[in-house]
């Protein structure tokens, strides 16, 4: 068997002896054992090579999979954000500016004159609306606004504002409250144009360039899957709709008087700041401060519906404030005797 | 008489040229294949204590008609070799393979051509100090070769280094043989012929290349920078010159790939393994020429031992010689003859002259006790043995006749299990002597029939001597039956009977010379006086003992 140990400079006899020496191994050594050693080394070497090739192959496949996953995710994000306008991307920031301002020292009641025309408020509120309600204190910073938006849902106040009860009777309002709480077709239909601020808060970041950079920076498949899962569960459609809303509707519950009684659902006498803002032109449609007091509610309903009924009554107060001609800044409080 | 070791003697191979110094026809005297295997294992492992000794002890010797059992013990042959066959190179004395030399000397070859061959070698060595020096140099190298091959193990011992040392020594040995014995005329010239053949072979060329490769892979020319303080600051390689013509020199890449190849084939990874394969391949090619070194070692010991014997004798003011061989009917002449066993005693050795008118005679030796009769018999036996082995005899000049065998009976030790008394044992010896004695042999008997009363002993003595003459031996017999010997001399009834007696000086003391005739006295009284066995001396001892016993009794009573 030829070997690299021989060369053309050697005599053939010497070359033959070197080949024989390699065949038989050390004198007195065990040639069989050496063959086993060689076989073992060969198998080990093949094993190492196979493992290395497999590792490289797997790594490359993993890398390709990762790249593909990232590309798919980015494509999805790209597709989702394609319809988003530049100003829509900053919708939450713009809303926060208005909310922070409204949570500051109260600037006084104000109703734009153009709202006083019959059906004007309804017309304004028929546009896409972004809605949030929460404790006044939460609206003094971004974090609080995010928290408030998380616990703010479409409620009887919103429904009654968009679909005014026919009368101010407890039963009429209770019907609205029931509809709001049950979330039925009627409620969905009449609040279809209203979108929660929360959807924009949690959905819009995923459509931003910064989130796409996060996708590109994902090093492992697990990271991509986590981001994908985040995207899957984000309310992107709602977020886009909320971002595209022209009107901001908010209600900020001021702290109640200390020592007063609270209902079982937490309702108690307190003031509420309500505002309607045209986000497109930066115009305040109305700014009102109303007093909510569940004491007017019959005892039988108060325990279960105090909050809902007070919200609905608040909506009626807003309507009435708009339609009242004797002063935009007039304080219109609910009077159960009316 | 059986022919010793003749059945398995290896016939000369016309194709093989062996450095055999002992025989005119080169002969491998050992099991070549078995020894080759042993040498291979020894080279590989360095564990083969006794390889040389065992091989030499098992080596066959030339066919011989002599039986060592008949004389070796009585002549103290082992002692003679140990004491006289000394090899001294410079100031260092080397131990010799005594048993191998004893085997060689105890079986003198039956072919006179072999003896002539050895005598020629020895004569040339004796005449040429240059050749002797070369042979001693060769012996020292063979001794080193033996040491490296037989016992070179231990922790940290580099096998490759040892094997390269062995190979370097092989080259030195071959070079020594080729260059040192080119002018030799005797059998020594065979060394040069053998070495030239080895040198011309491919294997030796590969050996030389490998050794050059080991010593000089490449030559680097450096420029060394030395600072003001004398310290070396750095160096720069000016040029690298690889010995590309050497077949073992390859590129660094090829060496690396070779290591990988060997590793894949189950060897270790590294330069050592590459070198091991090359060494193995080179040695494989030389093996057939290295194995005979063991036999050569024994041969060289034989000649240097003989020269050592000569040196020892010279140191004692004595001379040795290569004897002349003459027909049996020619006169026996030994001048300046001495017993070599006496050399080791430190006493002054007095040589003597022994002459007889013919060899094939029976000689009765008489003389006083301690007169040198037994020493003479020993010396005669050793001289015959050495002469027929082809080496120096202990005499300034000697004319000896060829003997077909040697029977010696000098020592009569009493053994615990012997079945007979002293006379019975002696008679058994006489019986055994006639059973194995060929015609023309040498017979040496000390004090024949001394174990019984003289009148009956003389009868048996006369019978034995009468019968011996029929085999025409060279017989030497000592006796104290002086009257009987004188009668035989007077009557001349037995043919070819000769008489030698110890010469006495004017003071009746033995001169350790031997002259014709029969002694008149054994001078037992002289011996008794010398050893303190006179009446006065014995009486003095008795009185001393009695006085001592009286003192002891008085002390006990007190």
Task: Please give a structural write-up.
The complex is a heterodimer of chains A (338) and B (558). Helices cover 55% and strands 11% of the residues of chain A. Chain A is α/β, with parallel strands linked by helices. Chain A folds into two domains: 10-82, no CATH class; 86-323, no CATH class. In chain A, strands 1-6-5-4-2-3 form a six-stranded mixed sheet, with helices on both faces. In chain A, β5 (270-278) and β6 (283-292) form a beta hairpin. In chain A, α6 (142-151) crosses α10 (197-203), α8 (170-182) crosses α14 (299-323) and α10 packs across α13 (236-243). The N and C termini of chain A lie far apart (116 Å). In chain B, β11 (442-445), α15 (454-468) and β12 (474-478) form a beta-alpha-beta unit. The radius of gyration of chain B is 32 Å and the shape is elongated. The model of chain B is unreliable at 1-16 (pLDDT under 50). Chain A binds chain B through residues 3-5, 7, 9-11, 13-14, 17-18, 20-22, 25-28, 33-38, 41-42, 45, and chain B through 40-41, 43-45, 202-203, 205-206, 245-248, 250, 254, 257-258, 261-267, 274, 276-278, 280-282, 284-285.
In terms of quaternary structure, what is this? Answer: heterodimer
Count of β-strands of chain B: 14
**CATH topology call of the largest domain in chain B:** Rossmann fold
Total number of strands of chain A: 6
Give the topology string of chain A: H per helix, E per strand.
Answer: HHHHEHEHHHHEHHHHEEEH
List keywords for this structure.
heterodimer, A: 338 residues, alpha/beta, 6 strands, 11% strand, B: 558 residues, Rossmann fold, 3 domains, 6-stranded mixed β-sheet, 4-stranded mixed β-sheet, 14 strands, 48% helix
Describe the secondary structure blueprint for this structure.
The complex is a heterodimer of chains A (338) and B (558).
Chain A: H1 12-24, H2 31-82, H3 86-89, H4 91-103, E1 110-111, H5 120-126, E2 129-135, H6 142-151, H7 156-162, H8 170-182, H9 185-190, E3 194-196, H10 197-203, H11 209-217, H12 221-232, H13 236-243, E4 247-253, E5 270-278, E6 283-292, H14 299-323
Parallel strand pairs in A: 2-3, 2-4
Antiparallel strand pairs in A: 1-6, 4-5, 5-6
Helix pairs in contact in A: 2-12, 6-10, 7-14, 8-14, 10-13
Chain B: H1 32-45, H2 51-58, H3 77-84, E1 87-89, E2 92-94, H4 98-106, H5 112-127, H6 129-150, H7 159-180, H8 189-200, H9 202-215, E3 218-226, E4 232-242, H10 252-264, H11 271-290, H12 292-315, E5 324-326, E6 332-337, E7 352-356, E8 362-366, H13 373-389, E9 397-401, E10 406-409, H14 422-436, E11 442-445, H15 454-468, E12 474-478, H16 482-491, E13 497-504, E14 510-516, H17 524-530, H18 535-557
Parallel strand pairs in B: 5-9, 8-12, 8-13, 10-11, 11-12
Antiparallel strand pairs in B: 1-2, 3-4, 6-7, 6-9, 13-14
Helix pairs in contact in B: 1-11, 3-4, 5-6, 6-7, 6-12, 7-8, 7-9, 7-11, 9-11
């Amino acid at each position: 068997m030829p070997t690299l140990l021989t060369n053309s400079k050697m005599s053939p006899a010497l070359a033959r002896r070197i080949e024989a020496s390699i065949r038989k191994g050390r004198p007195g050594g065990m040639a069989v054992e050496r063959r086993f050693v060689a076989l073992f080394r060969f198998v080990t070497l093949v094993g190492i090579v196979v493992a290395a090739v497999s590792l490289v192959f797997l790594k490359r496949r993993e890398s390709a999979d990762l790249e593909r996953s990232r590309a798919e995710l980015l494509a999805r994000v790209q597709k989702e954000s394609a319809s988003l306008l530049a100003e829509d991307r900053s919708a939450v920031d713009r809303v926060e500016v208005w909310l922070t301002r409204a949570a500051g020292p109260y600037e006084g009641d104000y109703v734009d004159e153009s709202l006083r025309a019959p059906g004007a408020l309804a017309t304004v509120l028929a546009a896409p609306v972004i809605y949030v309600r929460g404790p006044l204190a939460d609206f003094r910073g971004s974090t609080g606004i995010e928290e408030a938006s998380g616990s703010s849902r479409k409620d009887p106040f919103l429904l009654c504002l968009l679909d005014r009860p026919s009368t101010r009777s407890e039963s009429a309002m209770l019907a609205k409250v029931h509809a709001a709480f049950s979330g039925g077709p009627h409620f969905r239909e009449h609040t279809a144009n209203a979108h929660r601020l929360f959807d924009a808060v949690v959905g819009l970041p995923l459509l931003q360039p910064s989130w796409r950079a996060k996708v590109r920076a994902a090093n492992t498949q697990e990271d991509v899957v986590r981001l994908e899962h985040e995207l899957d569960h984000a309310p992107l459609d709602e977020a886009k709709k909320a971002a595209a809303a022209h009107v901001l509707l908010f209600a900020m519950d001021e702290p109640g008087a200390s020592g007063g009684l609270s209902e079982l659902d937490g309702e108690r006498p307190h003031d509420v700041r309500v505002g309607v803002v045209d986000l497109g032109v930066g115009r305040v449609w109305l700014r009102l401060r109303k007093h909510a007091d569940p004491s007017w509610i019959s005892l039988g309903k108060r325990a279960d519906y105090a909050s809902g009924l007070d919200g609905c009554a608040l909506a009626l107060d807003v309507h009435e404030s708009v339609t009242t001609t004797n002063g935009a800044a007039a304080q219109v409080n609910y009077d159960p005797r009316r | 008489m059986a022919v010793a070791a003749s059945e398995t003697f290896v016939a000369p191979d016309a194709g093989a040229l062996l450095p055999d110094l002992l025989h005119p026809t080169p002969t491998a005297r050992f099991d070549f294949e078995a020894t080759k295997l042993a040498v291979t294992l020894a080279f590989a492992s360095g564990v083969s204590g006794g390889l040389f000794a065992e091989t030499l002890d098992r080596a066959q010797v030339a066919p011989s008609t002599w039986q060592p059992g008949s004389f070796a013990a009585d002549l103290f042959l082992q002692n003679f070799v140990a004491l006289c066959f000394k090899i001294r190179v410079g100031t260092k004395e080397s131990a010799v393979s005594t048993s191998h030399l004893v085997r060689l000397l105890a079986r003198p070859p039956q072919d006179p051509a072999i003896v002539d061959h050895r005598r020629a070698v020895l004569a040339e060595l004796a005449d040429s100090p240059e050749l002797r020096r070369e042979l001693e140099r060769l012996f020292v190298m063979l001794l080193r070769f033996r040491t490296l091959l037989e016992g070179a193990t231990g922790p940290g011992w580099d096998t490759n280094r040892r094997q390269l040392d062995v190979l370097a020594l092989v080259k030195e040995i071959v070079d020594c043989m080729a260059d040192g014995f080119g002018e030799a005329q005797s059998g020594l010239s065979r060394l040069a012929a053998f070495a030239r053949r080895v040198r011309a072979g491919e294997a030796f060329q590969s050996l030389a290349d490998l050794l050059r490769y080991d010593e000089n892979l490449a030559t680097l020319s450096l420029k060394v920078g030395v600072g003001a303080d004398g310290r070396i600051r750095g160096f720069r390689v000016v040029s690298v010159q690889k010995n590309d013509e050497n077949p073992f020199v390859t590129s660094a890449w090829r060496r690396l790939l070779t290591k990988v190849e060997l590793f894949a084939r189950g060897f270790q990874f590294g330069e050592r393994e590459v070198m091991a394969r090359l060494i193995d391949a080179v040695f494989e090619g030389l093996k057939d020429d290295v194995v005979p070194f063991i036999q050569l070692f024994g041969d060289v010991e034989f000649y240097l031992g003989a020269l050592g014997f000569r040196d020892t004798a010279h140191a004692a003011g004595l001379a040795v010689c290569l004897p002349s061989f003459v027909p049996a009917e020619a006169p026996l002449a030994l001048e300046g003859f001495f017993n070599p066993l006496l050399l080791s005693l430190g006493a002054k050795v007095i040589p003597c002259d022994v002459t007889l008118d013919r060899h094939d005679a029976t000689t009765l030796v008489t003389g006083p006790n301690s007169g040198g009769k037994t020493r003479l018999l020993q010396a005669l036996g050793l001289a015959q043995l050495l002469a027929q082995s082809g080496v120096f005899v202990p005499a300034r000049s000697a004319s000896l006749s060829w003997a077909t065998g040697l029977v010696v009976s000098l020592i009569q030790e009493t053994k615990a299990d012997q079945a007979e008394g002293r006379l019975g044992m002696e008679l058994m010896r006489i019986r055994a002597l006639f059973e194995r004695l060929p015609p023309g042999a040498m017979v040496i008997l000390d004090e024949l029939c001394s174990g019984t009363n003289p009148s009956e002993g003389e009868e048996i003595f006369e019978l034995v001597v009468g019968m011996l003459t029929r085999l025409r031996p060279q017989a030497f017999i000592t006796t104290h039956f002086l009257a009987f010997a004188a009668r035989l001399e007077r009557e001349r009834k037995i043919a070819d009977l000769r008489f030698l007696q110890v010469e006495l000086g004017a003071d009746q003391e033995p001169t350790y010379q031997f002259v014709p005739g029969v002694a008149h006295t054994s001078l037992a009284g002289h011996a008794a006086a010398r050893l303190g066995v006179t009446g006065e001396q014995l009486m003095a001892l008795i009185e001393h003992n009695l006085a001592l016993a009286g003192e002891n009794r008085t002390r006990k009573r007190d």
